[in-house]
Amino acid sequence: MTLLESVESEMQRPGSIPSRRPSLSMAGDPFNGVKIGLAMLLLGGVPLWWAADALLLRSTAAQLAAAGAYGVAGMTWAIIRTRRMARSERHGAK
Fold first, then answer.
1. Would you say 63 and 57 are in contact if contact means Cβ atoms under 8 Å apart?
2. Is 29 left (phi over 0), alpha (psi -120 to 50) or beta?
3. Which residue from 38, 54, 73, 88 has the highest number of Cβ atoms inside 10 Å of its Cβ?
4. Which DSSP symbol is given to 59?
5. In whole angstroms, what separates CA 24 from the centre of its chain?
6. Alpha carbons 94 and 91: distance in angstroms, whole number
7. Which residue intervals of 23-59 are DSSP H helices?
8. Prediction pTM value
């Protein structure tokens, strides 16, 4: 039996046709909101970097301070949000 014949015989069975669901779908995860928020933080850091470099802050120390403050704020947000989600999952599972 050739590969083509094998594929054709599989397609003739009623339950063998694949579904037409989107290929990029994921199972629901309570941390998806955190992941999206982290992606937005990463994408938001680029304009901040450009603005600090081009317009606002000429000294390297001031640029590092702005980037550090943005990083600490993002890290704090991620920790708080993740802990809140984990706590709600833990209480929801009981």
1. yes
2. beta
3. 38
4. S
5. 13
6. 6
7. 32-51
8. 0.59
